[in-house]
Here is the input.
Amino acid sequence: MEDHVLQRTRTEELLRTDGSFEIVFSGESAPEFTTWVREAPASSRPHLLILDLMVDRKPSVDVGVVERLLGAGLRILVFSALASPLLVRRIVRAGVTGVVGKRDSESDVLAAVHACARGESWMSTELAAVIAGDSSRPQLSVQEERSLVLYASGLTLEQVGAEMAISPETAKQYLDRIKKKYSANGVQVRTKLDFGRIAWTEGYLDPSAQTETET
Here is the structure.
């Protein structure tokens, strides 16, 4: 599952060109896949799911859903920018078959797909650093990370709450927690632009794709 159309299309091209795989489903998110797979005939169900973890302006992948899919016998290769260390660590602990980074080469992506399709584990060279984590970096919960991404993308508190299915007050609480954690680490957070700088420097957002923010 991959919400960026160009990247999903290119990945599908790689798999089709390789000639070893049949693509039975392509979509933007895990909920779309779970809805489809419940109704798909057994002969059409895949052996391997290639899954992104974070979807723009939508909830990140639910670890519980991943665990249920794994429990049903599906092999899962995470194909991700690895921007959320906490979420990556939780997904790895859930027992996914492999993890490959979006900055990895196309040959590495294909090698990862082949390995995971055989039931062999594959770990991106980025993953060790992600799992180890940066002890000096404030640790955010998945919900705090999500609120940071949405707010730094330019959404209002009301819009952040709507996207996360929470109240604006709860969204503000998540952002206040982020502010306190970074302030305790010597990083002052006073404006939406400050939240944006955190999201950019920590790798949660690509600054080249950043929408206009408000102070």
Residues 208-215 have pLDDT under 50 and may be disordered. Residues 138 and 181 are 6 Å apart (CA to CA).
